[in-house]
Amino acid sequence: MVQQVTRGIKISVETTFEGTFYKNYKMHFAFGYRVTIENQSKDSVQLMARHWKIYDSLNTPEIVDGEGVIGKKPVLKPGEKHTYSSGCLLTSPFGAMQGYYHMVNFTTTRKFRVKIPTFKLSAPFALN
Q1: What percent of the chain has pLDDT above 90?
Q2: What's residue 59's pLDDT?
Q3: Can you tell me the distance from the alpha carbon of 122 to that of 128, in angstroms, rounded to the nearest whole number?
Q4: How does DSSP assign 49-86, residue by residue?
Q5: For residue 1, what pLDDT band results from cuts at 50, 70 and 90?
Q6: What is the Cα–Cα distance from 20 to 91, expressed in whole angstroms?
Q7: What is the DSSP letter of 123?
Q8: What's the rounded Cα separation, in Å, for the pair 93 and 90?
Q9: Which of 65, 46, 63 has its CA nearest to residue 55?
Q10: Among 40, 43, 55, 110, which residue's CB has the most CB atoms within a 10 Å radius?
């Protein structure tokens, strides 16, 4: 598990290898990840959008931007957590992801970014 705190918002990420399969005559490696967003600040905040950079050891990095997470824009009061699960496909058994969330502080109405720490994606059978 990797963790990072930005402006009182703690991001924790756990990863899993889900398996391999063929798609369009090409081998793909499926990875899952579970993110917990914990508000350790004294203000209520809302997650508005996400920005991901997905690294695949055999391809150029892919950028993914979108509103919310899994169709939600969670509001977190002080001490609250929001956990969600998602995944990605790589064409190699190794990769990584990193990014940030666009958040808004309800007390100050200021927008800010919360860093998502870099986490590795690796198929266990491909490790030495």
Answers
A1: 90
A2: 85
A3: 11
A4: EEEEEEEETTS--EEEEEESBTTB--EE-TT-EEEEEE
A5: very high
A6: 10
A7: -
A8: 7
A9: 63
A10: 55
Distance from C-alpha of 10 to C-alpha of 81, rounded to nearest angstrom: 9
Domain map (residue ranges) of the chain: 2-118
Q: Give the CATH H-level superfamily of domain 2-118.
A: ApaG domain (2.60.40.1470)
Would you say how long the chain is, in residues? 128
Residues 42-98 pLDDT 10s: 999 999 999 999 999 988 999 999 999 999 999 999 999 999 999 999 999 999 999
Q: With 90 as the cut, is the pLDDT of residue 112 above it?
A: yes
Strand partners, 29: 20, 90
SS3 state at 126? helix
DSSP assignment letter at 108: T
DSSP tag of 92:
S
Give the distance, in angstroms, between the CA of residue 44 and the centroid of all CA atoms in the same chain: 21
Distances in Å between the Cα of 37 and the Cα atoms of 12, 16, 29 are: 7, 18, 26
Distance CA 89, CA 9 (A): 28
Q: Return mean pLDDT, the chain.
A: 95
Give the integer Cα–Cα distance in Å for 33 and 67: 18
